[in-house]
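RETRY 2/3 - previous attempt timed out on the joint model. Re-submitting the same 698-residue input unchanged.
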Amino acid sequence: MTAQTMVESIRGCLREEMARDESILVIGEDVGALGGVFRATDGLLAEFGPDRVVDMPLAEAVIVGSGIGLALSGLRPVVEIQFLGFAHQAFHQIGQQVARMRYRSQGRFAVPIVIRAPFGGGVRTPEMHSDAFEAYYTHVPGLKVVAPATARDAKGLLAQAIQDDDPVLFLEPLKGYRLQKDEVDDGRFTVPIGRARIAREGGDVTIVAWSAAVGLALNAADELSERGIEATVVDLRSLVPFDIDTLTAAVSHTGRAVIVQEAPLTGGFGAEIAATIQASCFYSLEAPILRISAPDTPYPLAGIEDMYVPDTARVVSGVADLMAVTA
Amino acid sequence: MSESHRFQPASVAVEPYSVLTKDGTLTAEAAPMKDDATLEALELMILARTFDEKATKLQRQGRFGTFSSVRGQEASVVGAASALDPRRDWVVPQYRELPALLRQGLPLENFALYFMGHPGGGVIPPDVNVLPIQISLAAQLPQAVGLAWGLRHQGLDGVVTTFVGDGASSEGDFHESLNLAGLRKAPVIFFLQNNGWAISTPRRAQSAARTLAERAPGYGIDGVLVDGNDLFAVNAVMQEAVRRARAGDGPTLIESLTWRAGAHNTADDPTRYVTDDDEAPWAGTDPIQRVETFLAARGVWTEELAARIRLRCTTEVERALGVARQTPPAGHAALFDHVYAVPPDRLNEQRARWARNNAPDGSAPTRTTES
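RETRY 2/3 succeeded.
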């Protein structure tokens, strides 16, 4: 075990996978000499050369679209989109093209591609970088959407995503890149896609989160514990597919559910979680399901982003209010 | 500021490369294709025309879906495809290139099934090097570049030809793809069929550029303008582009000047927008007739051979449509198969629920609010 930040564990994973499998290419903007704007690909160019670590022109659609073609030729491209906000400029390739190739060709063409993209707020980026747009992509049949919260999970899930025969959108929390160090197993390991993690156990309420919001939920749970409220925190780890069994078991046990998402409220993935909980846990619920989210407004400039992205205090007060509700 | 600092639209005259004139005579000393290869190409052109005519009739009777015929563009598509080696080269189509798909080895019945709305129309046999038909225009171009780059990366000598139209050349993917292809020296040929129309929008409304081929140097790649109704000219420029791509000399943009001799598709009504003035310059430019006239003058194309080939084409179209018609309707498996390599539990549950709710004997009416 080694203590690592998430950006270190991702880099370590890419390095191990590239050494193991020659068919893996890393392509994206500034992934070469710079090592990526977050250094997630640092050192890969020196180790694997410019044929396998490719600085791409600033053109998201062809970064993803040529990644599809590379995959069709028999390779396993790991594509970096510098910020998920810029993936809008590749949306047709992700939303319409990559995830339908298997279906449209009746199984002839698999597209084993991983699209890595950092997302989410809290690190004072310029405008347009920080939106949590994950829900757009969870609505795309054929695409898997993974959103780890810890360095260990990031490494294991990325290794799994790279060997997956279907396209995977791999979302990395901007705020979680260097926020904390986790113990990460040495050597190669995988974490299955579609299995949630119980990040904390408590009997009073279940807080459901993914990516950076998991840390928020855990901080809130600690504060709530001081008030005598014990929370289970479910880290979904992947949104498509998502672990319905772990989710519903936790909520059935506690009878109360709170979903924390960084994205705006309307149409967010939290709505999918809420609908699933009410369908599966209706008779266990002791209170309405609460969603804590950003408002339905554009992501603001950095100076006021702390008011926009949910914080610990909002989660704590939301949960506390929910505990006061009696069925 | 001196002229050496300015880049202006070129003022020199441009002429499309041409070998076989409208009246079927050669401008070159010899045809670039041998007689047997020419006959093979001609038969493919006639097969496509035969299919288009039959499918259009069937569509009018409600027995075939909306589709776009390749009528008028046969020399363009066949001339391009005939320069490829189907065993190692790839075609990345849009949707109006039937004969190119056939030459690569796609069964005609698969194409027919696609436009009859049958999921079996998506099937591409394992040894046929084509990607699925593209409907979101220009989205195929980045994929073609990546495929070409990937082949080269793995030391394979395959060349990728992707088809695009004058309309789709206005898409952002067109720009991004030519740019990346130039950078990677990808063995890809952008075969741009300028057929004059994007549904009702004329070529002149797509771009102020005089030709679309002249965009190529801006990406550091070669551009070629060719008479798209001239089988020999198209084939010659394609052979050169394939040779260059295979040798590692990079991509080519070929603008094939042709004419959509019909509607955009079976739902379109070109009488609303195509004028006599638009059509006049294209009178007498039928690409099939041109080759027939040439071969007839050489004594190769006889009434007897023409009849034999037309019969073969009719027979093949009837055979393919027969197979398509006899293909059993797709069941609900076709909604769920091939979405993922390993379907998630939730999808399996939806599939099982669909089957229960639609039991043939109606025995299990267990519809829920979930899908």
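Chain A has two domains: 2-184, 197-324. Closing ticket.
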